[in-house]
Amino acid sequence: MSEIAWRSARGVRSIVIVGGGTAGWMAAAALARVLTGTPCTIAVAESGMPAAAGVGEGTIPNLREFHGFLELDERDFLNAAHATFKLGTRFRDWGTIGRRFLHPFGPYGVDVQHELFQAQWLKRQKAGHPSPLEEWSVTGLAATLGRFAERPVKEPSPLRHLSHAYHLDEALYATFLRSYAEKRGVVRLSGEVIDATLDGRGLIESVRLRDGRCISGDFFIDCSEAGLLIEGRLNSGFRDWARWLPCDRAVAIPCARSGDPAVITESTARRCGWQWRIPLRHRIGNGYVYSSAHLCDDEAAARLLESLESPPLADPRLLRFKAGCRARAWVGNCLALGPAAVSLEPLESTGFHLTQTGLGRLFPLFPDRDFDPAVTAEYNRLTALEHEHVRDFLILHYVASKRDDSLFWRDCRAMSPPRTLAYKRDLFTKTGRIAMLEEETFAAASWLAIYAGLEVWPERHEPSVDILGSSAISERFEVMRGIIRTAVEALPRSA
Amino acid sequence: MSGSAIRRIVIVGGGSTGWMAAAALSAVVGRRVQEIVLIESSEIGTIGVGEATLPTLRAFNGTLGIDEIEFIRKTQATFKLGIEFRGWNPQRTFFHGFSDFGPDLRGVSPHQLWLRTRAAGDDRSYADYSISTVAARLGRFAPPIPDRGSVLGSYSYAFQFDATAYAAYLRVFAERRGVRRIEGRIVDVRLRPDDGFVEAVLLQGDQAVGGDLFIDCSGFAALLIERTLHAGFEDWSKWLPCDRALAVACARTAESAPFTSSIAHQAGWQWRIPLQHRTGNGHVFCSSFIGEEEAARTLLANLDGEALAAPRLLKFTAGRRRESWKRNCVALGLAAGFLEPLESTSIHLVESAIGRLIELFPDRGFEPKLAEEYNRLIARSYEAIRDFIILHYHASGREGELWRYCRNMPIPEGLRHQIELFEAGGVVAVYDSGAFAEPSWVSLYFGLGVFPRRHDPMANLIEDAVLSGELQRRARIVEGAAHSLPTHGAFIGKYCRAAA
């Protein structure tokens, strides 16, 4: 872009991102994409430690929009991040031991309103014509049959409902985004941020690195693990959700790849938490997410090790976290993204997504140096709603489980869920309807996948299904399943 | 059909609300229930004078399979591109149209683009980018073409019609689909002793009409929902103090305008709704600040043509039924709540409530969660519209006691945040876009003179020449497109003139 005046006299002249990692580099890449050619500088301060190999990260399809925004080439990205395609998550042993279900991306049915599909499917389940939910999803059936093609398909083929995300190595992904950002003028400062100074208005003036350097800026983005600025200096406050999401540790071990990478993440419930299996190109990421109140670290590592399908490629790596979110993700001239803003276990692969939507909210609310409180209040309002709904979706996985083989699961079943989740669950069990609130991340189709997968059923089907074109729907219903199967079976094998 | 399906629906009250419910329910659930009856008394008048609507009415009519041309002819309807606001901003008249201000440019909203050129000294009005505004100003109309990418496909429209004629039209529709009309005046309501559900309504002459589901369309009387079931009323008059309206029709003098007018007065405002055969007028006012006689004088002094009758007085209180679905009774229209017709939302609220009811249609078990979800959704739409209407008063720069009160009154928390957010950086927060989305809020903010302290810094990333070239191009296209349309009168004359 040619000479452009960053015209407003109050415009932000410098942005300092504290902490690299995927959140920091996602922010740097997005800001660089937008601000290239302006006098606004972007710096990322991250410790000089070499990035550890990633434990493997699952994503959801929205990440493709982020890549579209950055104008990334998908091939470059796949190669750089050792990424594989992901069509959904397979859950095992969650509702009851021995039961499996799939949470696929994309909608159910073809050309049918979700509400109608859902009502009809639920009615048939009850009326003695049960069918696996995933067979009604193009993406779900493709995952089950191991089929995939990445080319987007135009209408009218049912394959346009095929939706994919990725499994990737998050350390390699951060490096990839770093090179993108650096090419666009982002400056990387090697050094650990240890402190910050505030000005008379309570805004951050500068951050200090361990080597004594001071970096000043107008706008700070806190992508540190612990919320160094947003909490350490600005005391945003933390909403602790541990009473609903008791898992607070993960131990991760990669193992050798055997065979072709699968197109799904596996999530297997275990005695004191759950275990992920994320297939990457070069290896398989494994991790046991557990509650330290119910299981000690050594035993968790041992349980994980003994479950691996192939020899481990590294020593166990322990990760600690606490479920919750920052009371205000944006305070003054400091915006928190990534773990500094919200910390939720990777059960539904929302980590990158919440960073992405945070950035998505930032641009239309982009500040100037006045940092108007009304603007930050709007950011925080939308963010809080989004985080709570994701939290509720995760809690549902635990609270609706019927497992009682350990104290952990008995504790989960005994908890009383947040009010918003209780409302949704009761509405579903009483009426078969899914309430969508403001700023939901997961569509009704996803909620249905989890309810059905955990065998949470409505007490009765919706009376409205008898009204709303029931004959039209029931006639088309079986036909639709055939259409989906034919379309998916025509796809090539996924690997 | 499940053993506990609704067998009989009793609609209490006719009018446009009752017959809209009857028409929609007969079309959608008619074959599933044994009977739908509607009780109305020809002694009780209906409220409808000239009624303006929102574009959502077209979807409602479309669902019923109503032929638009026939509907227009039968209801003396004219086309509506939006609302003209006169006197609300003492500096100038502005328009709230059914279109946006053009597409985003590099992710920046059109109103932010305009704010930036304005900051740079360009004095073109934002209204020049709104096709509905420019077409309305020229008195031109034709329905949009099906191409959303073209400016001639980028607007929407609604109708201004005779609500009484609409009710009569829907009555024919509903009766043809088996709705049974019972003429009668309700004198009492019988509740089931065990659970307090409505069992039957009793008509003069001791006829009892029983049913499973009762739809209360009895207007302000709220016969079932309030007088019988005491659902409670949330009073919003501290924010919307107008409590009276005087309505009168007058002769049509010029060609009907393709828009509704709202003219601010000393203690309220006046609507002007052009129909094909005459013009509906009404003065909405606050009785604490002006007497009825003076209000009537103001109204009569501001008619375009000769008054066709003496003004008729209506009294109301702004607010909402706390539970418009309670037990086996669902209230619609004025029985569910009242918001002054400043943004023509009355019929829209009836449509959307009927739509919700059909989505959440109960069986005889009347699962309380259904009513709870229904009431949550209804509350949200009423509150969003309420706040939008409050904005008109609160942000008006008009002088006068009522206007001073409204400027200084504490407003709902959500609206306060919305206004502060817009003032800060032109950001529009929309809590519920069912009726009014971002372009509507922008029309009102700008129209009333609420301008942000700064524009979106992202707009600064667009080169001057690119931006001004693009905006000039857009204004030129809008201007040309508007001039390519026929006049409103010519369009009606050619396609849908009502029989005299």
What does this structure look like?
The complex is a heterodimer of chains A (495) and B (500). With 495 residues, chain A is α+β, with helices and mostly antiparallel strands. Helix content of chain A is 34%, strand content 20%. In chain A, the strands form five sheets. Chain A has a seven-stranded mixed beta sheet with strand order 6-5-15-16-17-14-18. In chain A, strands 8-2-1-12-21-20 form a six-stranded mixed beta sheet. In chain A, strand 15 and strand 16 (273-279) form a beta hairpin. Residues 1-5 of chain A have low confidence and may be disordered. Chain B is α+β, with helices and mostly antiparallel strands and 500 residues long. Chain B contains 14 helices and 22 strands. In chain B, the strands form five sheets. Chain B has a seven-stranded mixed beta sheet, sandwiched between helices. Chain B has a six-stranded mixed beta sheet with strand order 8-2-1-12-21-20. In chain B, strands 3-7-4 form a three-stranded antiparallel beta sheet. In chain B, helix 1 runs parallel beside helix 6, helix 1 packs parallel to helix 8 (346-359) and helix 8 (346-359) packs antiparallel against helix 9. The longest helix of chain B is centred in the last third of the chain and has 27 residues, at 368-394. Chain B is globular, with a radius of gyration of 23 Å. The A-B interface holds A 1-2, 4-8, 10-12, 34-35, 37-38, 115, 363-368, 370, 372-375, 377-378, 381, 426-427, 430-431, 433, 435, 438, 460, 462-464, 466-468 and B 1-2, 5-6, 28-29, 32, 107, 109, 358-363, 365, 367-370, 372-373, 376, 417, 420-421, 423-425, 427, 429, 431, 453-458, 460-461, 463.
